[in-house]
Protein: FAD/NAD(P)-binding oxidoreductase family protein
Organism: Acorus calamus
Amino acid sequence: MASLLFQPLKPYKPIFPGTPKTLTQTLVCKADTPTTSNNSTGKPRSRNPRKRSSYGTSRRSVLKKSFAQEQVNFTSPVPDDPVVAIVGGGVSGLVCALNLERRGVRSTVFDTGMHGLGGRMGTRIIDPQPLVFDHAAQFFTVSDARFRELVDSWLEKGVVREWEGLIGELEVGGNFSPIPSSPTRYIGVNGMRPVADSILSRSHLVNVVRPCWISRLDPFNGMWHLSENGKPQGGFDAIVIAHNGKCANRLLSSSGLPLLMKQMKSLELSSIWALLAAFEKPLIVPARENFTPFEGAFVKGVDSISWMANNTNKLRSQSDGPQCWTFFSTASYGKQNKVPQENIPNVTAEKVKRDMLEGVEVAIGLSRGSLEQPIYTRVQLWGAALPTNTPNIPCIFDPYGRAGICGDWLLGSSVEAAALSGMALADHIADYFESGGARPDEFAIGLHDAFQPIKGHDIGQFPGLKSKEQASETETCSTYA
């Protein structure tokens, strides 16, 4: 075993300006031997981490102890061939891994997905028909040149295409208004999940482990050691947290990264219900003058519905088959009807399904009970759906703990924001490695930034997309300019 583990330093002196006074000392993690990889395949080095006692399970106990935990400070040199662990295989984590590879840095992505990578880039395929639903991210737009380059590569691979279908705003009673002008909208050719699965399809320096639920991060002997319910998952020279919510909070609560924990705990997330419903025939909308069937609509004035989209038309599936629709609730409805998403009571699932289908009737102007009953339904609660506040920074990095955070919430709540955050953190970590870690103060970023509310739709942000009111305001301003 190592002769030098965690050595208390002199009486506490803040490492970072503004470090919470609850920190009483700093931990120094020193390596006894040079840190070298055990192979050249991109797999992590494995060492046995020192076990530490776990914190209590109550939220109050976790909060109290997580903010009082001692700051990890790695002083061992950065190895010549460092390896990064990325916890979370959503867009931000995958793009982070992709850009680390472009900088010559190896990584391992750990993801909990049973059906595939992507996080909220989720697509459900129900056999044997099959029924296909995008049940999380519905579409995305592009406003940044760096994201444009990535999207162009997806277009070249044939995994995304422009969505030319009609979308707009649907008010109570079936009053539909097309969005006047909008940027190019993109969707996955076969759904959103294949887009995420394609991001690392040609990588050589990235190892993917799934399904895997990382439950502990232990600093030991100059490295981070990850484990899943007591099962070691290897040692790494830096870590990236690319997911959020209660699981990320629990993971950071005893890791020795109080500043990252503080920022993560400042994040507020909405809860949104998704209802997947397949109908034998197209939804019948009461006859209206000049009405054109839409493929997607932001719903106004209905508490149980904020968005509805026809996946069958959107994905150009067989038109003579069942019509697959995705419905999302409002954030307020999600909050009012929130339950543990891992174990949704049947009575709650039935209530939510009933409320949302009634909301569809109200939105499209049908009398109560006249909506055709779907031949298939599934409800899902996104308990940590979307951020409602943001520090508006590209990424967070603690150079002393060699740990960072990326995710859409750092810049907003869009696919573009997630990708840009992953890019930024990858470049920041690569620059830190190239510096040898000798000047950590220069690489601290995002550890104290304040949060601001996020403005956008309940289902996220779409840079460049304007609502009817926004378009009207723009036109008015142009007229009087």
